[in-house]
Amino acid sequence: xxxxxxxxxxLDANLDRxxxxxxxxDGEPMQAYEGExxxxxxxxxxRRVFRHLEPGGHPRGIFCGMGICYDCLVxxxxxxxxxxxxxxxxxxxxxTTLRE
Amino acid sequence: MxxxxxxxxxxxxxxLAAALEASTAGAEVVLIDxxxxxxxxxxxxxxxxxxxxxxxxxxxxxxxGVEMVTQVKASTVEVLSNTLVWSVFxxxxxxxxxxxxxxxxxxxxxILAPGAQEAPVAFPGWTLPGVMxxxxxxxxxxxxxxxxxxxxVLAGVGPLQLKVASQLLEAGxxxxxxxEASSTPPVSMENALRSFGHWxxxxxxxKYWLALKKARTPYHHSHVPVRALGTEQLEAVVIxxxxxxxxxxxxxERTVEADLLCLSYGFVPASQLTRxxxxxxxxxxxxxxxxxxxxxDQQTSIPGVYVAGEVGGIGGAEVALEEGRIxxLAAAxxxxxxxxxxxxxxxxxxxxLSHAREFAEVTAGMMQLKPAIADLVTPETILCRCENVTAKxxxxxxxxxxxxxxxxxxxxxxxxxxxxxxxxxxxxxxRLIARKTGKPxxxxxxxxxxxxxxxxPLRALVARAQ
Lengths: 100, 466
Prior knowledge:
By secondary structure, chain A is mostly beta strands.
């Protein structure tokens, strides 16, 4: 895992996560664990901007966190408009953050 | 088409409780939920692939959630997780979307327990990543076990943000300021007197309050965030004092550097399905706005359709649990089925429900938004997050429309036509209309519900046809 000066954002005091899985985000490998949502993986990696909305290039990330606002949309394996907060990681998942 | 005796939509406290009662009474029950894990937004259970080291280290409600979910899984209830109810057709037929396919389910009795959403409040910068609903921060912390930010400002109304704050502190985050819009803090002598007799709730409130005291977290009543600053994501929050009517007091602004701003401005019932069915709704501002009417058996204006929990008025988890139990029993009874000791238990549920509703009345009084909350919006503020529609576009439309309707705004600006279907902006626009016309919120025609209530891929509809 990439070394970071700050403590991990994953809260593992009372938790064993699922088995480690690798995904890619915009082509970069990213560490994830079975059971995690894409939103959680991105947030844990410090990636809070999930897409830019045109016109204006407005950055967006997690807002409602419960699958109703459709702000956290990403592309997964070529499928557009996937809600990062509602989608659990699968090994080898290819995620692309959007500019639309 | 598949038929079932009872279908229950939503697996939070109300839906789980309804499922248990109805199945115990001998009914065939299908419990449908959009999420991968049962429990809903109140119980916030960890994903199945996670293992908790010690259950005793979790909160009381987390443990209660584990018990409820375990009971349901051990029962005869059939659980359909990862399943969206995207429509309700005539005769109460449910349109389901799961595993990229659509299918229909025809229940003889239908219990809707879809819960609520958090009430949106807009101000400049509220679309920046790092600004999120309090519930989103909680979902990250409790369900996913990820810290949503290291330096947080919390804003909103009522006691919930005390809970979010203590959860952030426990997770190792810094809570810089808590802003309560109203002039009466939830933990005050006034509210303590109102809460007399609700000892468990008072104990819980005091627990959060003491955690904040211990961390020396500044708590400001009569304060709101007026701007969120940052280029790519949240970098700072400008906060200001408001008067008793929530008008910003000039000259009181100050800036706090933060990477997380949580908004907890109360809840709105998730009434898409009951509206689609044509159930009677009524406006009750203290319970979140448009609530679905129901009788003492939780039955709506449509025979055979019941509601339980927040959709019938925001009341909290204890109300939802008892309403769920009563709805489950009533739906089973309509099929001629009842459990041994059923009536004795039901009397107990009704007693607990009226006690829980008393406390819900106390918190309801703390969570009502005042009209001036709409004034935080500037012309450039985005109201419709999906379609990037600004307040200026909305007010210009309203200026040219004598009737000042939500529908007019939607047609002219596309606000509310994006994938969230107005779940955020319609509330903001109704507030602007109310502010402009001087009408009370309830006099503004609300949004209509349309199927699909959430986007369903075309290929899923095609997959059904094949």
